[in-house]
Write a structure and sequence with these properties.
Elements (H helix, E strand, L loop, with lengths): L2 H15 L7 E5 L5 E4 L7 E5 L33 H33 L13 H31 L2
Helix pairs in contact: 2-3
């Protein structure tokens, strides 16, 4: 990536992320030729200050050290609101759907475990080849792990409903 392209990408990033306080921006090149935009002149690196009026690099996390904490986000006055009875009905519907999905996933997991038979499922007629059998056993093991993850995720979702 050439310097001009890097600077243009940096400027686009700065424009999107918003300006905080104006400060100096440096283009640094390390020993391997990698280029980096930074807000500090690092000793030991080949850095040169860029002349970018009004540009700044925001601190990670969106806040600068010593800066006042930002005010909480406020919804616009015309933002649609849902009354509590409607929200409770939506939560009940969500709980019912998630419970149904959890029951389905638990049945699937039980069927997979039964077929898996503690790592020794019955051989099928088309599995005379040991490699084919081992491939099916590995697939069953992966399916069981995936189903267990799904069950845990659904339980977490259910626990998050108020």
């Amino acid at each position: 990536m050439n310097t001009r392209t890097l600077v243009l990408h940096g400027l686009a990033l700065l424009a999107v992320s918003g300006a905080a306080q104006a400060q100096q921006i440096f283009l640094c090149v390390d020993a391997d030729g990698r280029k980096e935009l930074t807000d500090s002149n690092r000793k030991g690196k080949n850095c040169k200050m860029l002349d970018l009026p009004g540009a700044s690099i925001p601190a990670p996390g969106g806040a600068r050290r010593g800066a006042a904490p930002s005010a909480p986000a406020v919804a616009p006055a015309n933002f649609p609101r849902v009354d509590s009875s409607e929200q409770k009905a939506r939560d009940a519907d969500r709980r019912a759907i998630l419970t149904d999905e959890l029951n389905t996933e638990n049945r699937k997991l039980a069927d997979l475990r039964k077929e898996f038979n503690n790592g020794e499922p019955e051989r099928r007629a088309d599995e005379r080849n040991a490699a084919k059998y081992q491939e099916r056993v590995a697939g069953l093991k992966d399916s069981i792990a995936r189903a267990e993850q799904n069950v845990e995720a659904l339980k977490r979702e259910l626990s998050n409903i108020k």
